[in-house]
Amino acid sequence: MGTILERIIERKKIEVQLLKKAGTKMTNTAFQTYSLIHKLRVSEDVAIIAEFKRASPSKGDINLKLVPEAQAKLYAEADASAISVLTDEKGFKGSFADLQKVRKTVNIPILCKDFIVDRIQIDLAGASGADVILLIASVLNKEELAELHNYASSRGLECLVEIHDESDLEKAVEINAPLIGINNRDLKSFQVDLKNTEKLGPLVKKAGALLISESGIKTREDVLRAAASGASGILVGETFMTSSDIRKSFADFKIPIGGSRF
Description:
The chain has helices at about 5-20, 35-40, 70-75, 95-105, 120-130, 140-155, 165-175, 195-205, 220-230, 240, 245-250; strands at about 45-50, 55, 60, 80-85, 110-115, 130-135, 160-165, 180-185, 210-215, 235. By secondary structure, the protein is α/β, with parallel strands linked by helices. The chain has one domain (about 5-20, about 35-250): TIM Barrel (Alpha-Beta Barrel). Strands 1-4-5-6-7-8-9-10 form an 8-stranded parallel β-barrel, surrounded by 8 helices. The protein has a two-stranded antiparallel sheet with strand order 2-3. The protein is globular.
């Protein structure tokens, strides 16, 4: 049967072939572009990337009532630095239509969060209004990672290269990825441990890349731990998708870069 991640990747490969067989065409809609890398470089506080995520394989349904436009507006009004949109349908109940709706609502960077294994997915992300795509180092060899990273860059998209261990980090550093995300969730077991950011964060910073801490961030203390480990930003999904007061949740997470604000 394999791990959850292995099953997702096999499904993605089938989906890619179906897209190609259907002759899926991308509409080259001209969108205003927004740079997440620039935002991270100029921000004095830990940047908050707020995620629109209805469900996940590990948690099941998180919040099916929220609509992309309304939630994106709340995120933007609360001063999110960027918005991440899950576009995987079967595992996360997302879609590229969700991304398109968010793009029409906000004027900040949008991350297309999916399991990307082929150029056609990058084309879909760009055509839907994404500014940034996620590339997961553990599911790509170094050559594939470099090829997809270069292709996305040629299309004007930034890449968040996600790592979970030293082997992933080595691949990210070898392709000179300027933006690296440390996933605190092990995608094989789906267990979460913020110690992963604390372990790998200093190594990412030593390599000269900007760092995003992903997954499992639920409290102010979690943000402080990420900031102390060198994070320029955090990616938060479930906590915001279940929050009854988005502005308060954002205020609780407002921390200066590398510092502490109690």
